[in-house]
């Protein structure tokens, strides 16, 4: 079967310097000829230091920013050419979860509306039917129905990330880009949210791109890992192979870097995590 997502030669640069007249005189290449695939039900981990271009890749594949060059195929369709109804359908099927759940939710919107909004936009659902779906999905992510009329500020970071996950799930997507989804959460809460992502993947056959600084998390969650350095892919491979036998000097240095003390405390090398 073909891959769910196929990315080839993805390149993007941003203006780096301008002259006195405001003309761009230098551009920095943020993703350079990046290629990878993601299969159905698979998690591709993307690792690499800050500024390596990880988030920029995520945003390009979801068409939140336009690549300069490259091909993105999702379920056989050329994502860059999608328009109208086909683009809307793609927006249903491919979602994103961000690092900071508070800024990804509108502070003036109740949870009922935040989670229900995609259903209104895409399916014109309202009233009782919309609420029924909202409650169902909120309960699935571990939230209670009596919290529907609260605002984001009334929740903890972990609860907000559950709500953000619920919002991403309402349209029953096939694919989610998770960009550092637990980096802003307390260590004690991280495992719960990661387990939720794993359970949802098992239930729904979801595919993830999982972007993280935390190698122990990637090792735990990802089936394959792609290592990025300065906008380029240095190495891609099945997770255990890559961790056990890294080929590239940069991957080796990344893996040998002093482990994050938080990661050690969580002891993620001994799966599974406790819910
Ligand atoms: N809209 C933009 N305009 C200009 N430069 C940008 C823009 N978006 C990203 N960049 C630059 O592109 C580079 C890669 O950014 P990106 O956010 O993709 O990195 P990252 O790997 O996700 O880093 P981090 O781990 O810190 O999140 C950075 O140098 C950043 O400053
Ligand atoms: Mg980033």
Question: How would you briefly describe this protein structure?
Answer:
This protein is of the alpha/beta class. The chain has 11 helices and 10 strands. The chain is globular and about 55 Å long.
CATH superfamily (homologous) name:
P-loop containing nucleotide triphosphate hydrolases
Strand-residue fraction? 25-35%
Number of helices: 11
The name of the CATH architecture is 3-Layer(aba) Sandwich
Q: Helix/strand/pairing class, anyone?
A: alpha/beta
Q: Give the strand order of the largest sheet, numbering strands 1, 2, ... along the chain.
A: 6-7-8-3-9-10
Let me know the number of strands.
Answer: 10
Keywords:
single chain, alpha/beta, Rossmann fold, four-stranded antiparallel β-sheet, 10 strands, binds adenosine-5'-triphosphate, binds magnesium ion
What does this structure look like?
With 275 residues, this protein is α/β, with parallel strands linked by helices. The chain has a single domain (5-265), classed as P-loop containing nucleotide triphosphate hydrolases (Rossmann fold, 3-Layer(aba) Sandwich), CATH 3.40.50.300. The chain is 39% helix and 25% strand. The strands form two sheets. Strands 6-7-8-3-9-10 form a six-stranded mixed sheet, sandwiched between helices. α4 crosses α5, α4 (111-123) runs parallel beside α6 and α5 (127-140) packs across α6 (157-169). It binds adenosine-5'-triphosphate and magnesium ion (MG).
């Amino acid at each position: 079967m073909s891959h769910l997502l196929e990315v080839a030669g993805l390149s993007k640069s941003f203006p780096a310097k301008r002259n006195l007249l405001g003309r761009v005189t230098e551009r920095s290449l943020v993703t350079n000829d990046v290629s990878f695939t993601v299969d159905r039900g698979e998690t591709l981990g993307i690792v690499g230091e800050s500024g390596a271009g990880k988030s920029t890749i995520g945003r390009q594949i979801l068409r939140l920013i336009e690549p300069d060059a490259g091909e993105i195929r999702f379920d056989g369709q050329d994502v860059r050419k999608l328009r109208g109804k086909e683009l809307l359908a793609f927006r249903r099927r491919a979602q994103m979860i961000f690092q900071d759940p508070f800024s990804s939710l509108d502070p003036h919107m109740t949870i009922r509306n935040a989670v229900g909004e995609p259903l209104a936009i895409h399916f014109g659902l309202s009233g009782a039917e919309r609420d029924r779906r909202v409650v169902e999905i909120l309960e699935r992510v571990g939230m209670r129905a009596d919290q529907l009329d609260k605002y984001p500020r009334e929740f903890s970071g972990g609860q907000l990330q559950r709500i953000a996950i619920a919002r991403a799930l309402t349209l029953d997507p096939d694919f989610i880009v998770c960009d550092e989804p637990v980096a802003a959460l307390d260590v004690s809460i991280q495992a719960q949210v990661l387990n939720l992502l794993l359970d949802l993947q098992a239930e729904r056959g979801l595919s993830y791109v999982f972007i993280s600084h935390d190698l122990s998390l990637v090792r735990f969650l990802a089936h394959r890992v792609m290592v990025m350095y300065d906008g380029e892919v240095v190495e891609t491979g099945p997770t255990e192979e890559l961790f056990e036998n890294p080929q590239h000097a940069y991957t080796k240095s990344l893996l040998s870097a002093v482990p994050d003390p938080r990661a050690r405390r969580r002891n993620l090398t001994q799966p599974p995590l406790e819910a």
